[in-house]
Structures are given as C-alpha cells and as structure tokens.
Write a structure and sequence with these properties.
Elements (H helix, E strand, L loop, with lengths): L1 H21 L5 E5 L12 E10 L2 E9 L5 E8 L6 E4 L6 E8 L2 E8 L2 E10 L5 E9 L5 E10 L1
Antiparallel strand pairs: 1-2, 1-10, 2-3, 3-4, 4-5, 5-6, 6-7, 7-8, 8-9, 9-10
C-alpha cells in the first residue's frame, strides 16, 4: 500500500512539473512575421525559432538567413539564469545568456571571444500569440544595428 501511494505521489509530481513547464509563455514554435519586423540588411534573420524545456534546461533552435543570404541554423542550450552558455551557428557570437525578467520578458546577451556583440529583450504578448525580439549590436564588420523582429506562435 505504501509503495502504491509513493508511486502515485511521484506520478502527480512529474505531471505537475510538466504542466508548469508547458505553461511558460516563451516555449513553443515561433515564426517570423516579416511585415511587422524591421531587420537591418546584412544581419542574421531567424525565420523560425523553437524553444523547448525539460527539467529546467532550455533548448533553442533557430533557422533563418545569415547576413550573406545563406541558410543558417543556430542552437543554444542552457538556463535562463544570466550565465553564458555556448551558441552554435552564429558568426557574431560564441556564447549567449538569457535572464528571466518576469514571466513574459527575457533579456539576452551575445558574446564573441568574451566581448559583448548583441544585447536585447524578448517580450511575449499578454495573450501568448506573439512576441517581439529587440536586438542592438555590432556586426562582425563593426556596423551597428537595431533589429525588431515580431514572431507569431505556431
């Protein structure tokens, strides 16, 4: 009887955790709404971004077009704890951090060789159907940019 109760308790704990993680408004698949976005030519344009989470670890995969017009695939895995974690596929960064400001807002910082190249903010709308990513930075060639990308939840 005790084993059955322990098993049921553990099952409800895991289900509760899954429900809480699924409720995070950042998680999911996001598609770029180009008509509402302003992206500086020659900078990375992510057309689809997927956020997923398991046991507190977040994974972000992005597909898009690089500054030269070629397909790009970037990846990041870590926590929203403000610490740097490796990023792959971005010529402008080798590390990225995310800090959770509140339930709907993240701050992000990209670094290349320890130097900050991009800072930004990601805000999910109150209804959870869209999000706005505002990035300020410098390209590998030293050109300053500001991108505002609007994404729709898929």
């Amino acid at each position: 009887m005790k084993m059955r109760m322990i098993g049921l308790t553990l099952a409800f704990c895991f289900l509760g955790s899954a429900v809480c993680l699924a409720a995070d408004p950042q998680m999911g698949t996001w598609k770029l709404n180009e008509s509402k976005s302003k992206i500086t030519p020659g900078t990375l344009k992510n057309t689809q971004v997927v956020y997923s989470s398991m046991f507190g670890q977040v994974k972000i995969k992005a597909d898009g077009i690089d500054g030269k017009g070629k397909p790009s695939h970037t990846g990041w895995s870590g926590k929203f704890d403000g610490k740097d974690y490796p990023v792959t596929g971005d010529p402008n960064a080798d590390a990225r951090s995310y800090t959770k400001v509140n339930e709907r807002t993240l701050r992000t910082t990209n670094k290349k060789n320890g130097k900050v190249t991009v800072t930004g903010q990601i805000v999910t709308s109150a209804d959870g159907k869209s999000r706005t990513v505002t990035l300020n930075g410098t390209t590998p060639k030293g050109k300053k940019f500001k991108n505002v990308a609007v994404y729709d939840r898929q």
